[in-house]
Amino acid sequence: MKFQNLIAIGLLALVTMMIPAATIAEDFDGSRPLLVAIIDVIECHPGGECEKVSPQEARLPRFLEIEFDKKEISEIGDAKEERRTKIQSVTQKEGMLILQGAQNGRGWTVNITEASGDAVITVSDPLSGFVLFGACTPR
């Protein structure tokens, strides 16, 4: 095989590998609804006492749906009444998609890494705070 053919095949392979990566990044930029799976939950209290708990112990849903066009996050599950919250602010900066809001005396932030869909969610009130680690997939 000629040297030029090898270079052409190598360049074609490189371009082909770059296209899916760009498409994946677009999945987490706020242009499509997302399903978020909560993987780990850490609950903290004043004085620095923190412990890992299950989403059920923290009364948190295992799955969330983010609907950017409605500016809304809702739980997905078997709850009798599905909880929803409005997204009050959306910021895109340095490869992060940052959502913020407040409801029922609690503030929350969702940080989504646009390149991977990894998510870190914080929820706090005057007596406790939660850090949730999760993963997003396009809906």
* Radius of gyration of CA atoms, rounded to a whole number: 19 Å
Instruction: Give the CA-CA distance, first to last residue.
Output: 45 Å
Described by strand count, sense and barrel closure, the largest sheet is: 10 strands, antiparallel
Based on CA inertia axes, which overall geometry fits? Answer: globular
Helix content: 10-25%
Number of helices: 1
The topology string of helices and strands comes to: HEEEEEEEEEE
Main structural class: alpha+beta
Mean pLDDT, rounded to whole units? 84
Give the low-pLDDT segments. 8-25
Q: Per DSSP, what share of the residues sits in E-state strands of 2 or more residues?
A: over 45%
Number of strands: 10
Structure description:
- The protein is an alpha+beta fold and 139 residues long.
- It has one helix and ten strands.
- The protein has one helix at 3-27, and strands spanning 34-45, 49-53, 63-67, 72-76, 84-86, 89-93, 96-103, 106-113, 118-124, 129-138.
- Strands 1, 2, 3, 4, 5, 6, 7, 8, 9 and 10 form a ten-stranded antiparallel sheet that branches.
- A hairpin with a 4-residue loop joins strand 3 (63-67) and strand 4 (72-76).
- The protein is globular, with a radius of gyration of 19 Å.
Draw up the topology in text.
Blueprint: H1 3-27, E1 34-45, E2 49-53, E3 63-67, E4 72-76, E5 84-86, E6 89-93, E7 96-103, E8 106-113, E9 118-124, E10 129-138
Antiparallel strand pairs: 1-2, 1-3, 1-10, 3-4, 4-5, 6-7, 7-8, 8-9, 9-10
Short description:
The protein is α+β, with helices and mostly antiparallel strands and 139 residues long. Helices cover 18% and strands 49% of the residues.
